[in-house]
Design brief:
Elements lengths: L3 E10 L5 E11 L4 E5 L6 H8 L7 E6 L2 E2 L5 H11 E5 L10 H12 L4 H14 L15 H13 L5 E5 L7 H18 L2 E5 L3 H5 L3 E6 L2 E5 L1
Parallel strand pairs: 3-8, 3-9, 6-7, 7-8
Antiparallel strand pairs: 1-2, 1-4, 4-5, 9-10
Helix pairs in contact: 3-4, 3-5
Length: 225
């Protein structure tokens, strides 16, 4: 089963005038692949990720995640699916600064409400330890470095064992040292744990070290390597 299957996606913007931002885009991603989507500004890559995340439903074509058709689902169904099956890591970490690290990581699982609080807390502790944040679990998110905050965001993305992690410029705010740390974490998650990762990036070095690169230009896929 594919982690992601995109079929003949067309997307238009209408303000100030009709403009086709994605043009017959099709590609597939295997389970456990670490894939980057690249392209210059205006190529459609961020729009594509927004569609894949199920937050934009106005498009022609079909999107399957983990063998399940997303196209045509209601907003409530999609919100439920997102929380349970997708993890997100953005350029900015979007942590709650006054909350402790452990609280930030636990939030999506508490919202999902499918496991006891003790089990969620135990999982969050293990994720923070795996991401080299042991001993900082009860610090406020505002009291740690930017690189550490992005690692907390990765732990939060993993708490519900998502089918796919989607990254929107996940290293865009980081220096070269922390960029390498975050890349190595993603690489390890894909290789050792079979985690599927799809990341939009401007960073050529980041992209070059992924399993595959999907390149967009003027709303079209021009290469899949």
């Amino acid at each position: 089963m594919k982690a992601l299957k995109v079929e003949n996606i067309n997307k238009y913007f209408y303000d100030p005038q009709k403009f086709q931002v994605l043009n017959d885009v099709s590609f597939e991603v295997e389970k456990g692949e670490f894939v980057s989507i690249i392209g210059k500004s205006g190529s459609g890559k961020s729009t594509m990720l927004y569609l894949l995340s199920t937050m934009d439903t106005v498009y022609d074509g079909k999107i399957h995640l983990n063998g399940e058709l997303m196209t045509g689902k209601t907003q409530n169904q999609l919100a439920e699916y997102r929380n349970e099956h997708l993890g997100f890591v953005f350029q900015f970490h979007y942590l709650l600064p006054e909350f402790r690290l452990i609280d930030n990581v636990m939030l999506p699982a508490l919202k999902l409400g499918k496991k006891p609080v003790e089990e969620i807390e135990d999982k969050a502790m293990k994720l923070l330890e795996m991401l080299d944040l042991k001993g900082r679990e009860y610090k406020a998110a505002s009291k740690i470095s930017g690189g550490q905050q992005q690692r907390v965001a990765i732990a939060r993305a993993l708490i519900n064992d998502p089918a796919v992690i989607m990254g929107d410029e996940p290293t865009g705010n980081l220096d070269s040292k922390n960029t390498k740390v975050v890349f190595d974490i993603f690489r390890s998650l894909a290789k050792e744990f079979g985690q599927t990762i799809i990341a939009v990036t401007h960073d050529d070095d980041f992209a070059a070290n992924c399993d595959r690169i999907i390149e967009l230009k003027d709303g079209k896929v021009i290469s899949v390597n």
